[in-house]
Amino acid sequence: MKAAVVSAGGQAPACENFQEPAALASEHLIEVGAAALSQLTRGRASGIHYSSAGALPFVAGVDGVGRLADGRRVYFVLPRAPFGAMAERTVVDVARCIPLPDTLDDATAAAIANPGMSSWAALTERAKLRACETVLINGATGASGQLAVKIARHLGAAKVIATGRNQAALDRLGADATLALRGDGEELEHAFKPHFMEGVDVVLDYLWGPSARAALIAAAKAGRDGVPLRFVQIGSVGGAELSLPGAVLRASAIELIGSGIGSVSLERLVAAIAAVFGAAATAGLSLPTRILPLDRIGEAWAYAGHERVVVTPGHF
Asked: How much of the chain is in helix, strand and coil states, percent to nearest 5?
């Protein structure tokens, strides 16, 4: 079969022949219809993500949409290595497959599953969001952040604040307030501080690095005595590390929480994806999507635009 095969660390996958998968008793054999090119897919393929398996060669892609032998459409996540989602066929544990509602087409479901799950799980499993709370999304202009704005509101947030570097992109999100991430250090702290003075209950952080540091310091200085701020760390596009004064945590009720594979069980992550699909129509969950066939995986991998790339093997 044809697949997007990763043969060496640090190299983009190539469309090549790969061995046919055979399903075990506890697995489904899936004819793949669509698979999104996520940051997780890129990170695992390059070997830099903490969940990377390391064995080569393997097929790229951590999740996708396809059909079972009886024709049912399903979303699937984490195929059995060395198989992946970006192939004509793959094998996945039965427990990692979710029936797809008829209201969602393959490309839309593949595009929103992973980024939608990141905020849904963070808000429900880790932050335990309560109705009428205020949520600040640090890094809201990426795929995950765009959906996070809508998901936070759908889950009952009274106010959603969005940050990002592109003001025009921020203005299109429909957030209640926006903050353009300009400058660094004290300049960023001053930009964050008025929002924390008004009251923020939950931060979803997709950036880490300088902006997260500034937000944490501003939150500590704004200080609502004894009122906890749940700061949920999800992504690190802005930097893998930050240096934080210990006084930030001693002098405030900030709770630092991580959300992702490992901090949330796979079972609960799959449940979060099912919830995203269930809410997609009412919450308006969709993303601008660029669809490319499997034999153009090199072009898909190199694409640097703002659309969500979805790879299709071309069966349907």
From this structure: 35, 25, 40
Q: 64-76, pLDDT tens digit by residue?
A: 999 999 999 999 9
Domains defined along the chain, listed by start: 2-100+287-312 (3.90.180.10), 114-258 (3.40.50.720)
pLDDT in tens, 196-250: 999 999 999 999 999 999 999 999 999 777 789 999 999 999 999 999 999 999 9
Q: Are the C-beta atoms of residues 212 and 188 closer than 8 Å to each other?
A: no
Amino acid at 87: A
Are 79 and 53 contacting, i.e. CB atoms less than 8 angstroms apart? no
Sheet of 229-233, strands arranged across? 177-180, 159-164, 134-138, 202-205, 229-233, 254-258
Tokens 């797809």 correspond to what residue?
100
Q: Which residues contact 109 (CB under 8 A, 6 or more apart)?
A: 34, 65, 75, 100, 277
Q: What is the pTM of this model?
A: 0.90
101 vs 252: CA distance, rounded Å: 44
CA distance linking residue 95 with residue 52, whole number of Å: 21
Q: Is beta strand 27-36 parallel, antiparallel or unpaired with respect to 63-67?
A: antiparallel
